Amino acid sequence: MFEARSIPQFPAVGALALRFAPLWPLSLAGQRLTDRLGKRHPALFSRLGDQADKVFLIDPTDLPCVFVMRPRPERPQFSAHRRDEEVGWDARIAGPLAALIGLVHGAYDGDALFFSRDLAIEGDTAAVVALRNAIDNEELDLVREATALLGPLAALATPPAQKLASLIGAVSGAPLTRVATGRFE
Questions:
Q1: Verdict on whether the full-model pTM lies above 0.85
Q2: What is the Cα 185 distance to its own chain's centre?
Q3: DSSP 3-state of 85
Q4: Architecture of domain 4-140 in this structure
Q5: Are the C-beta atoms of residues 114 and 181 closer than 8 Å to each other?
Q6: What range(s) does the SCP2 domain occupy (predicted)?
Q7: Which residues contact 101 (CB under 8 A, 6 or more apart)?
């Protein structure tokens, strides 16, 4: 596991570019990935039970946008929004993008991030705990899940995508792939 203080920030130039870029490509890509996660890992959303109807605000504090997720098993939804846009939510999870990705990949301990104040939780904490447990149970790798969107080409695309993510992760310090034996691959 990585120490909470070693969490890298998203590059400022990238955040500046996102400030002026349209968000519909992020919404579209996020929705496709969310749909795919629901198909490949049905327990991910069904395990949430009553919490699946909650609206989660995923707030990468080093980006000029936020993400809204409604993890309903029958039709999960994902969308990107400008930070200043009014968005209703039941639970908010905020922290640097690398920390949020690292939580999904098992590289960071959520409790340690919370107590070090690198991660903020607001609203329905029971919903956040249910989501965290569901994600931990599925042992997701977002690179593998994203390349699965390529269908039959996924088998060819996954190894180079994993290597590229590992290289970028090694340079940036961000855990961009699933951890193995306490280190990200």
A1: yes
A2: 17
A3: coil
A4: 2-Layer Sandwich (3.30)
A5: no
A6: 46-135
A7: 142, 174, 175, 176
User: Is residue 96 very low, low, confident or very high in pLDDT (cuts 50, 70, 90)?
Assistant: very high
Per residue in 53-78, pLDDT tens? 999 999 999 999 999 999 999 999 99
Q: How far is CA 45 from CA 110, 128, 135, 165, in A?
A: 19, 13, 9, 26
pLDDT score for 157: 84
For the chain, what are the domain ranges? 4-140
In 71-98, which positions are buried (b, 16+ CB within 10 angstroms) versus exposed (e)?
A: beeeebebbbbeeeeeeebbbbbbbbbb
- Dihedral angle sign, alpha carbons of residues 77, 82, 83, 84: negative
Q: Report the chain's mean pLDDT, rounded to a whole number.
A: 89
Helices 125-138, 97-105: axis angle to 10 degrees equals 60
Q: What are phi and psi of 23, to 5 degrees?
A: -95, -10
For 10, the 3-state DSSP assignment is coil
| Residue 49 near residue 134, CB atoms below 8 Å | no
